[in-house]
Design brief:
The chain is of the alpha+beta class. It contains 3 helices and 4 strands; from the N terminus they run E-H-E-E-H-H-E. Helix 1 packs antiparallel against helix 3. It starts with a strand and ends with a strand.
């Protein structure tokens, strides 16, 4: 089991658009082999900072999802200049 922490800083005023867009990503993940669950968390001290915690059976399952057409289709909304910086991913082994 692995948890992926996907860290995002969102442009001020774009938080709702980001949250709604990522809901679609989370919904798409629900049917992907190897995916267990995903939660979105917002920093209480910096409301533009988010971490998406996604649990997978293994890192390969997550990497395959990120490389898939499904992922590209549900993340095209990010082209709306929502992010205030480059996102980062952190891998946590269980």
């Amino acid at each position: 089991m692995v948890t992926i922490g996907m860290n995002y800083k969102v442009v001020s005023g774009k938080e709702e658009t980001f949250e709604n867009g990522f809901r679609k990503v989370i919904k798409a993940m629900a049917d992907i082999d190897g995916h267990t669950q995903t939660r979105m968390c917002r920093d209480i001290d910096d409301p533009q900072m988010y971490v998406i915690l996604s649990e997978w059976s293994n890192r390969d399952a997550f990497d395959q999802f990120v490389a898939s057409d499904t992922f590209r289709k549900v993340t095209d909304w990010g082209k709306e200049e929502l992010l205030a910086g480059r996102p980062s991913h952190t891998y946590y082994d269980h």
